[in-house]
Amino acid sequence: MKHGLRRSVARFVGARVLFLAVLAMVVSGLTGPVAQAQTPLRWAADASADVPYTFHDLKDQSRLTGFEYDLMQELGRHLNTPMQFVQNDWDGLIPGLQRNLYEMVICGIEITPEHTEGVDFSTPYYVTSERIVVRRGGPVFQGVTDLKGHTVGTIKATQAERILADYPEVRVRTYEEETNVFMDLVNGRTDAVLLDGPIAQYYGATNPALEVVGDPIGRVSYGIAFAKGKNAELRQKVDTALAAMIQDGSLHAVLARWNLWTPEMAAFTKDKTQPDIAPTEWQHYTDALQGASSWQARFWRYVGFLPLLAKGAVLTLLVSLCAMVLAVALGLTLALVRLYGPQKLAAIAALYVEVVRGTPLLIQILLIFYGLPQFGINLSPFLAGVIGLGLNYAAYEAENYRAGLQSVARGQMEAALALNMTHVQALRYVVVPQAFRLVMPVMTNDFISLLKDSSLVSVITLTELTQTYIRLSSTYFDYFGTGLMVGGAYLLLGLPFVRLARIAEKKLAQPHTRRK
User: Which InterPro entries match (predicted)?
Assistant: First the structure.
């Protein structure tokens, strides 16, 4: 009888595996066209909080802007090639380059010995220096030595951080995003900020509570990054186009519109001309900042956020639903294998559960998206997110279902077999439904948790609700109002499923426990 049960379970598991394979094919079919190579030249940046490099226009969030964005459009005209922008999180820009998600990255990346070990750079397209920003009316620092004994904020893995590291007396705080650096300065958590000239100008000089002080410090050069040892021909073409942009003045024109033409750039390019080019983009940005301060303007700005939040919510819900289907199917299979399968398969299932539960979900998602291509497995961001979340939650679902199956009385299986049911029929019609009724509340809680954990897929270029929140809050320096809207969106997504779970519980309840 035991061997017959194992054969039946093997057939049952085989059906579940076939279902999972079909599910993967369907999802891959839905997302496959997105992952196909495109004819335009692909370039990537993190536009979520990257003023003035590449960011979303404050007056029109559907429009990308920034001096690097304009520079890439001008570069495309010189290369006679259409350009395609690819959004990626800052930490994923270089891994995505190595994964061949795009051909180049331009995001204010400094040309340093450390960076040149991992990527190849074009010739510099912008040269600047570090600047100090302080609270208006506070202490004025002329140089780095004046910062000794003070708390100074900067961005991690930048030249500014390396400069501050040479002064042990300076208490350094590093951040992921520029907005957080300046928010802490305004709120008095730090005494000063040391950052690149463009960042200091667009975040510090535009804030009435802050001011840029002291002399320029050091030298910073930005370059376009290419995958190490690859695309040498494209890199040469880009260098030629950048040289042509310097010669014909188009690079000067782009920087002048953004009020970023500096003495360092004049010395680097040997361009001493002073064309009559108004800083129109700089003026557009400052006007947008000043016009967004009133309550009426803020209200209409929140109304304008609704389409973006709706788009992020749809992606969040789609990823969560697909991942939960995968988690339920795989989790039930793992539970049945551990309880009724052969000993070796049961050991493998137990090992899978312990390994997945014992490692962070974020690491698993990054491993699937960035690690598997080394073995020739290239998954689209959507499919990688679904698989990462689904495989992770399958381990937790397996333990829930195992507990539910074990709570069903052993006599239920024996009674079903006595009625001439096969083992698969007994599991399908008698044991599993009773266990499913018991684990329904836990499964609902797991789906709500998965819905919130779907925010982690933002690290693999998916712009869901959390990534939308980061982009909007950092652009407008508004974490409270935008946070309430995004939190409300997550709440609205979860409540219907809680209600559906309650209805399902009542339908599955035993007759003597149902309320009249």
Answer: AA_ABC_transptr_permease_3TM, ArtM/GltK/GlnP/TcyL/YhdX-like, Iontro_rcpt_C, MetI-like, MetI-like_sf, Solute-binding_3/MltF_N
